[in-house]
Write a structure and sequence with these properties.
Distance between the termini: 144 Å
Strand content: 15-25%
Radius of gyration: 46 Å
Structural class: alpha+beta
Number of helices: 26
Mean pLDDT: 86
Low-confidence stretches: 7-25
Number of strands: 31
Largest sheet: 7 strands, mixed
């Protein structure tokens, strides 16, 4: 009997295991619904890879469904969708009808390498419509839209027109077509005068059919820096991706992690034209838009009741009403007081729980209630993670002002318990370790049966503002401590502020510099401003003067600064003193091209000038002569009286030869006691030989060195250019050198002309 029972139990367990195995292997499925703002096949193709990506990253089976607005509303009502992606106006309408957990992420669109988390509307008409050029021209025209619950396709443009004095709901015929492609088609075919579409659709259609750019005209185009699409309206947050309340929180976190991990280069992102997803944006601006236009869910008008009617006759019934109210209040006050207080407390908790701003209730220094926004701000998973703890639990040990968080929190709570409303900036630490700054307000709330009031605490996230302030302080420190001079001018180039380096380099203190023009080239000051305005930046070097009068050389970079509307607002200049650098460069150039002893050009500069002189002789059709000069009997003088005496002799001989030659001629020292000369525009042989004779005479005159009178002579060889065959400069110098050696052989202190025969 026992064996039979054991066998039966084993058989039952085996059957259960066989049934459970397929169920354990099956993936859990979730449905992602997307609003079809374009034709359904287009949306299906674009977002199918996103569904596959979410399935792969989360381990879930993510099913993609594309709906129009009515179908999505029905699907949400029957819980056939777990997550949905729709435009912000439609999201507000859904949120008013259903209980939602909040926005999971905000879509980031990508276009041609630039991303944006904003959406707007674009107003289009046919290119040939010369009667429609501005918003006022739309009065009375027929308008095509996807539908009234499309933010970019209707509401954004409706608000712009309303501000321009055009109420399209009263003065225009509206045609609702369901998606943006039909709107474009209606405009092109002439079925309507104007069309409203969301930003990005126009660019997508132009990419598919470039000819549309010549057929359509945009109205009221805005110039928004950094926004990649053409837009006719102000901007609002992009599409939200929302999870339904019935979805398990673990699945929500998995999907959120996958969305935030999506990179712009991923195939799923490229297919959908996305740059990824960002944390939920603030949709308050969309709510304000709907309220202004009285669109759903803010389209209900208060009903006129008998109270309104009686209000017109309040003078007659006021006394009776007051007496009646006093009687009712007096008779029911004691019995209803407790119920009223309980109702008020419950209403207060519900208000705090649904408020988008982080709100908390504190009693005896501990959190007793909070809303979801507070939980999200500090990065915890649920309200239970915060309850029962004090503010210092989620704070660093000390606040940035140095006060311990526990001590500062106790001081604030003591102030509030005395009836005061306290406000303070506070630094929290999120669960992931990151910092978040809040503007915290604490106010007393008096409840029944409580000796001391509870505390209502609200947080306003100011993290971005604090980081911006820190960046401003850092920029100011950089400005003040930079070694380069920095100045800021207005749009006309008048200095508004300078740093200390500016005063050190120019000698002008802050009082003198502000209100005047910065250092700029005298002959092109206004031209520099024009160039910087046109090209964004101007860079150059120029000579200026220190306030005490000495010359300086400045290297300036002048940059344009534009405001949010793209208008020039300031110039920022950075310059440094490069006087010493320029002087060093000048000295280096001198050392590279001139002889350090005589100051004459060296062999390098001589060769360069010879090439230039030869080219000029060819152009102007005249002769030049190249003379090679070698001093005779120089070495004995150098040996007898020393190198200083020899150097003095070379300097004096060089001066005499330079004074004998004309200004346009060139004399160079090639090395030692060897010189070379270029004589340009030689008239005839007799004139040249007369010049050579004067050179020999000047060189042969006595020279007083080392307290002695010494004499030297020179051997000169020369050649002329041009000749029968084309020669380069080195060949001419070698010819003159050969002629010089011939003069040496013939007895020195003479000149010889180069000849091919060598005689």
């Amino acid at each position: 009997m026992n064996r039979l029972c054991s066998c039966t139990l084993i058989l039952v367990l085996g059957l259960l295991a066989g049934l459970w195995a397929p169920l354990a292997l099956a993936k859990e499925a979730v449905t992602l619904g997307i609003l079809s703002y374009r034709p359904e096949p287009v949306i299906q193709e674009r977002y199918s890879l996103l569904a596959e990506y979410l399935s792969q990253e989360t381990g879930l089976e993510v099913r993609l469904r594309v709906f129009n607005q009515d179908d999505m509303n029905r699907a949400l009502a029957s819980n056939r969708v777990d997550f949905f992606l729709t435009n912000p106006s439609h999201f507000l309408m859904i949120r008013s009808e259903r209980s939602l957990t909040g926005v999971l992420a905000t879509l980031q669109r990508e276009w041609q390498g630039r991303s944006t988390g904003s959406i707007g509307g674009l107003i289009l008409t046919r290119a040939e419509r010369s009667d429609i050029n501005r918003l006022a021209d739309l009065r009375g025209k027929s308008i095509a839209t996807p539908g009234i619950h499309y933010l970019g396709g209707f509401q954004a443009a409706a608000l712009e027109l309303r501000d321009a004095g055009v109420d399209i709901l009263r003065h225009n015929r509206m045609v609702h077509l369901g998606n943006h492609d039909r709107v474009i088609r209606a405009v092109l075919t002439g079925d309507t005068d104007v069309g409203f579409v969301r930003t990005g659709v126009y660019e997508e259609l132009i990419r598919e059919n470039p000819a549309l750019a010549d057929e359509l005209k945009m109205i009221h185009v805005q110039s928004l820096a950094g926004f990649p699409f053409a837009v006719s309206t102000r901007l609002y947050p992009e599409w939200p991706l929302v999870s339904l309340p019935h979805v398990d929180s673990q699945i929500v976190r998995q999907v959120a992690s996958a969305l935030f991990a999506l990179q712009p280069g991923h195939p799923a992102a490229r297919a959908a034209g996305l740059a990824g997803f960002s944390p939920p944006a603030d949709y308050q601006s969309v709510e304000d838009l709907a309220r202004t236009l009285r669109m759903a869910p803010y389209d209900q008008v208060p009903r006129v009741t008998w109270v309104d009617v009686l209000n017109q006759y309040r003078i007659w019934v006021l006394t009776v009403a007051v007496l009646f109210v006093m009687l009712v209040v007096t008779s029911l006050w004691l019995s209803r007081k407790k119920r009223q207080l309980a109702t008020e407390e419950r209403r207060q908790r519900e208000l705090i729980g649904s408020w988008p701003q982080p709100m908390l209730m504190i009693r005896n220094g501990e959190l007793i209630n909070c809303n979801r926004a507070a939980v999200d701000l500090v990065g915890y998973t649920s309200e239970a993670s915060l309850l029962g703890k004090g503010l210092p639990t989620f704070s660093p040990h000390a606040q940035p002002d140095g006060t311990p968080s526990l001590q500062k929190a106790d001081a604030l709570i003591r102030r509030v318990t005395t009836g005061e409303v306290a406000q303070s900036e506070w630094l929290f630490v999120r669960s992931d370790g990151s910092d978040v700054w809040v503007d915290m307000t604490l106010a007393p709330v008096y409840e029944h049966d409580q000796e001391s009031p509870s505390i209502l605490c609200s947080w306003y996230d100011i993290t971005r503002r604090k980081y911006a302030e820190e960046r401003q302080r850092l920029a100011l420190r950089v400005f003040e401590n930079a070694r380069e001079a920095i100045f800021i001018t207005d749009a006309h180039g008048v200095v508004m502020d300078i740093n200390e380096a500016y005063s050190l380099i120019t000698g002008r203190d802050h009082k003198v510099a502000v209100g005047s023009l910065p250092p700029m080239p005298m002959d092109e000051g206004s031209a520099i401003l024009i160039a910087a305005r046109k090209h964004g930046v101007w860079t150059g070097e120029f000579s200026s003067r220190h306030r005490d009068g000495h010359a300086i050389v400045l290297s300036l970079t002048l940059s344009s600064v534009f405001d949010e509307q793209g208008q020039l607002s300031h110039f920022v200049g950075v310059f440094s003193d490069v006087t010493q650098l320029k002087e060093t460069e000048k000295q280096l150039r001198t050392m590279a091209h001139y002889d350090s002893l005589t100051g004459l050009p060296n062999r390098v500069l001589f060769s360069d000038r010879l090439q230039q002189s030869m080219a000029q002789a060819r152009r102007q059709n005249y002769q030049l002569a190249v003379i090679y000069i070698d001093l005779d009997h120089f070495k004995p003088i150098n040996d007898a009286f020393g190198h200083d005496a020899g150097d003095g002799l070379l300097v004096e001989v060089a001066r005499r030869m330079r004074s004998t030659l004309r200004e346009e001629d060139t004399l160079a020292r090639l090395g030692g006691d060897e010189f070379a000369a270029i004589v340009v525009n030689v008239a005839d042989q007799q004139t040249l030989e007369a010049l050579l004779a004067r050179l020999l005479t000047k060189i042969g005159d006595p020279v007083w060195v080392a307290d002695h009178s010494v004499e030297v002579s020179a051997s000169l060889g020369y050649t002329v250019y041009p000749q029968n065959v084309e020669l380069d400069g080195d060949q001419l110098l070698r010819q003159a050198d050969q002629a010089m050696y011939r003069a040496k052989r013939e007895g020195k202190n003479r000149y010889c002309r180069f000849s091919d025969s060598g005689s």
